[in-house]
Amino acid sequence: MSRRKHSGLGTVGDRAQGFTLLEVMVALVIISIGLLGVAKMQALAYASTSTASLRSLAAIEAASLASAMRANRSYWAVGAAPVAIAITGTTISDATLAATATAANFCTPAGSAPCTPAQLAAFDLHRWATALNALLPNPTATISCPTVVTPISCTIQVNWTEKMVAINAQGAGGPAMQAPTYVLHVEP
Question: Which domain holds residue 28?
């Protein structure tokens, strides 16, 4: 039986296995970095879906108010509306419309006189503000109907706050993101 003296260098096969382990570890690091990138893209996709959902809801609500304004042309199209109405939450800035909106009944009971155009406008604005407040986070709205232009053209602007994910946020010192806004122009 012959004994071979073993040197510390090992055989060629042993060195090849060592290089393979190193290659596997480098590949794992590269794959890990790639998976982190995929996770970031997934987070941005979820955030974009939420943003798109809120923008769609704002558009639908603005269109519903535009429809109510067209249905009540005797108030909105003749210049009876205030030049600007601000809505924060469910609070209406115009004192007359706000007082009408907080009344127990917007219109008289059945069998009596129908609603006046101002009562109907207050009812529509109150219901719209309540729906907007239920759907969007911290909504504010401005309805502007300048009477200097004929036919009267109104602008409905809806603002809200949302959580945004920045692609390249570099800390708190970065530029502030602007709150989303939806604007709709309508001729009642």
Answer: 12-186
Query: Two tokens at 23?
Result: 């290659």
CA–CA separation, 98 vs 185, rounded Å? 23
23-44 residue pLDDT tens: 889 999 999 999 999 999 998 8
On whether residue 1 sits in a domain, the answer given is no
Q: What is the rounded CA–CA span in Å between residue 180 and residue 164?
A: 10
As for how many domains the chain has, the answer is 1
pTM, full prediction: 0.70
State the Cα–Cα distance between residues 62 and 60, nearest whole angstrom.
6
123-139 b/e with 16+ CB inside 10 Å = b? bbbbbbbebbbeebeeb
